Amino acid sequence: MGLRRSWLESANAPECDFPLNNLPYGVFSVGDSDLRCGVAIGDRIVDATGLEAAGLLPADPDADVLDAPYWNDFMELGREAWSRYRAALTAMLAEGADEAVQDQIVTHSVPIKDATLHMPFRVSEYTDFYAGRHHATNVGTMFRGPENALPPNWLHMPIGYNGRASSVVVSGTPVTRPHGQLKGRDDDVPHWGASARFDLELEIGAIVGQASDGPLSVQQAFDNIFGYVLLNDWSARDIQAWEYQPLGPFQAKATATTISAWIVTAEALEPFRISTPDRLEPLLPYLQEPGPMLYDIALEVGLAPTGKAETVIARTNYGEMYYSSAQQLAHHSSSGCPMRVGDLLGSGTISGPDRETRGSLLELSWGGKEPLTLDTGEGRCFLEDGDTVTLRGAAMGDGYRIGFGPCAGQVMPARP
Amino acid sequence: MGLRRSWLESANAPECDFPLNNLPYGVFSVGDSDLRCGVAIGDRIVDATGLEAAGLLPADPDADVLDAPYWNDFMELGREAWSRYRAALTAMLAEGADEAVQDQIVTHSVPIKDATLHMPFRVSEYTDFYAGRHHATNVGTMFRGPENALPPNWLHMPIGYNGRASSVVVSGTPVTRPHGQLKGRDDDVPHWGASARFDLELEIGAIVGQASDGPLSVQQAFDNIFGYVLLNDWSARDIQAWEYQPLGPFQAKATATTISAWIVTAEALEPFRISTPDRLEPLLPYLQEPGPMLYDIALEVGLAPTGKAETVIARTNYGEMYYSSAQQLAHHSSSGCPMRVGDLLGSGTISGPDRETRGSLLELSWGGKEPLTLDTGEGRCFLEDGDTVTLRGAAMGDGYRIGFGPCAGQVMPARP
């Protein structure tokens, strides 16, 4: 499939993140206005709340599900309604749409540059996985040595832990360097201090769009995923090293998790489905994929010191993941764990096999032993105050791209 | 302080869980009625939603915060409002209250035996700790040997992990035995099956009643806790053993967590405050308690096979905890993690030093090696289908008790 052309010319540029093929969902405000649901197209945001209120584009015949500062109620409608809505909106925005319809859209839209973006959905619960083999191998090697790099269970299940939904923030939100218990290798006892090894993690977040109350098959799990965002799982490595045994990361991951502002729907990504890499061990049937459920999404990490130019410190692809979000969701529900609309599943850090494809500073600087050199000439092992980290991602089509928009955050100094 | 006498005679019996000194908060329905907020007193439930609607006992002069099937909106009002409401209700229920007031209460109340109890609050997020020293030592000895029983960080911080809020259910809800990945010590690869080592954990849950957005002192944390419930953290030990390294328990703990139906307020427990045990290592200042913040609460675990009499398999006391809920909440917020109204913090399993004071079957049967004998003559290492587990707890006053009501659940067979 090629570019679907829109009468909105800005949507047809090959470098545009938001062509008609994309139509990602977000929440925006302009000035002091209420928060509204919006859809990005070209350089504009279509006011989905306004179109619904005017009766021009209802998502549900029975209720105003978009009269809310989040897309959760829309998600609850289910997969058929998601498709119907997307098809109707696509028709209104496609080249050749009635002039009257075009006028309605122009009336009910604003330039992206005039809008403030907010959390696109209410996060019910947040789970983070550890499902990239290169990342797990790298971190395992540093923490436990090369012979114990991959834990024995790793090739049999997507290892995950519950994170903290309250800490999820939208792109652009500053992130304050955390304090915590720190204990150096040669210290007898821990001390209290600001994290000196504050890190980023490049991930993709999957958003659960349908509730369930029992074990899901991988296909059911795939069908229940509404869409995806970029996700930066900020991590205090020094807090993590001291706290994480035996029950896993806790405060090291609780300061903030940043997501991009636009939900890219599973439907928009459909042409970019790819298979997970070959299995090194056979999976139990409940985790086997009936078809390709990963996506070919090019990813990069930018790091900019305060007031200076950005360096792209890593480039990789979502296709590096060993487990798809569908497999993760199937595993998550395997014990009967109820899943809810708005649950967010972090993929785990996405690293490729080579140094320049690693999705965290822990890996890029090999635990702080091999500093990166930024284009500005500065070195970096971990994040410094003022650093802005920006994740970017896009599925690359023929003459168009399905972009995610930035997932950015600046590190603020620790509290006094 | 002794018993506060009520004109409702059933509240004055020494064995009553709900004397005037208690006044725990729950949510109830009668027949097909809507869910309403209620307060237990003697053998009745005062309809707090109804009293508010009638203008007889407003919690907030500006809004009907009790016109909801949960106490979250009430909690948001804050500590002063909590106290004011409790004082007003106490006055209406105390011996000597006006006959007109007594008539109002009788009109707006129902017998407990006629009511169905529901979740008393909406769980925002659920965190489970591992803060009982006897439990951690027992489990650590079984999992890692006696020399590595307590992890090196254990005496320096309350170890915790994020659990799954969607899995929290109210007392009386059946619990289905989970499936999961299981791998015996001599197996080469895991298989899929129903958990054969399904267990209970005796805990107390603390409910966060005020939101925060940065590190809390222990005193602030104490002040933000609204109340407490009994909590059974159902655990599939065989799933846990295979999955928990390196990122902690996940599906082993996600099937269900049962809480008792009544929130016993911190204010009701005030006369029962006790100190945590002596420190084996000094704590960092951010975790030091300015005063006694544990409670003297007698606890017991009952186990009844289908259709048979119950055996009390353990008796212990909340005072065995090494860390209080206030310390746990302070630690939880230390990284800047935002805490929200309705967050639930499990204490960790409460075990005493002796076998009969252990709060899990894992400990009571020493990993399945030393079966318990029930009063019925049956043996138990772990839970069998049909078993009903009931936790009970009460702070024992002079001639009265602050009871929690039961925290019960029956184990249903695994899905086919």
From TrEMBL, chains A, B:
Keywords: Calcium, Hydrolase, Magnesium, Metal-binding, Phenylalanine catabolism, Tyrosine catabolism. Signal peptide: none annotated. It is an enzyme of class 3 (hydrolase). Residues 126-410 form the Fumarylacetoacetase-like C-terminal domain. Substrate binds at Y130, R144, Q240, Y244, T349. Pathway: Amino-acid degradation; L-phenylalanine degradation; acetoacetate and fumarate from L-phenylalanine: step 6/6. Residues 21-120 form the Fumarylacetoacetase N-terminal domain. It comes from the Bacteria. Ca(2+) binds at D128, E201, E203. Pfam families: FAA_hydrolase, FAA_hydrolase_N. Its cofactor is Mg(2+); Ca(2+). Mg(2+) binds at D233, K253, T257. Gene3D superfamilies: Fumarylacetoacetase, N-terminal domain (2.30.30.230), Fumarylacetoacetase-like, C-terminal domain (3.90.850.10). GO terms for molecular function: fumarylacetoacetase activity; metal ion binding. The active site is at H135. PANTHER family: FUMARYLACETOACETASE. This is fumarylacetoacetase. It comes from Marivita geojedonensis.
